[in-house]
Amino acid sequence: LDCPFQAMEREVSAAFGKGEPGEILSSAFKLKVTREDICTLQQPCWLNDEVINFYMNLLVERSKKEGYPALHVFSTFFYPKLCSGGYKAVRRWTRGVDLFKQDLILVPIHLRVHWTLLVIDVRKKTIKYFDSLGQKGDNICKTLLQYLQEESREKRNLELTVSEWTLRSVSPQEIPQQTNGSDCGVFVCKFADSISRDKPITFTQEHMPYFRRKMVWEIIHQQLL
């Protein structure tokens, strides 16, 4: 009999194999992931929005189980919309969601050719920026704090006490850094995976080839391993 690892490898190879690029290999959360999308998980490709958004939704599903922090994740399209149109442009993105009742809010950020992650911890009143290339995102943190201020006014009729909030870019000494130009999206997904479990981030660049294959399986089966 196959060990689970061999079965997983077979499925991953099949997903990466020949087939119609537009074939839908997974659909849930009002999202569809095609073979072409899945193939961005092959080395040395950059992950696309579809893969990252689908994976982030798997984290949200897991967080509904007992013992996990309450989690809200914004789509990769949220930050560019906020930047281009201001609060008005994204005001309706939280219909039916009280951000201030969440424990954690994750915002995946796409900077043209690089993925990073912004993490709002509502419990600790912190906004942190995680970048696997060690760049600072202090302005991104400020933009999101401003968004929270407007959201609080609009939805709760309450002024956010800005002085209670701490903003910072996590230093490259504190989190694993990528050693190539292609794995930023995987780093973002795995940062999000650890953070959404309140677990320390312990992986390294060496784990990336395995993480990429594991994510293929998780997306196809709509289930985190």
Automatic annotation (TrEMBL):
Stored InterPro entries: Papain-like_cys_pep_sf (IPR038765), Peptidase_C48_C (IPR003653)
Record GO terms (molecular function): deSUMOylase activity
Q: Which residues lie in coiled coils?
A: none
Q: Where is the Ubiquitin-like protease family profile domain?
A: 31-195
Q: Name one GO biological process term.
A: protein desumoylation
Keywords assigned by UniProt? Hydrolase, Protease, Thiol protease
Q: Which GO terms describe its cellular component?
A: nucleus
Which PANTHER family would you find in this protein's record?
SENTRIN-SPECIFIC PROTEASE 2, SENTRIN/SUMO-SPECIFIC PROTEASE
The family line of this record is:
Belongs to the peptidase C48 family.
Protein name in UniProt: SENP2 protease
Q: Which organism is it from?
A: Sapayoa aenigma
Gene name as annotated: Senp2
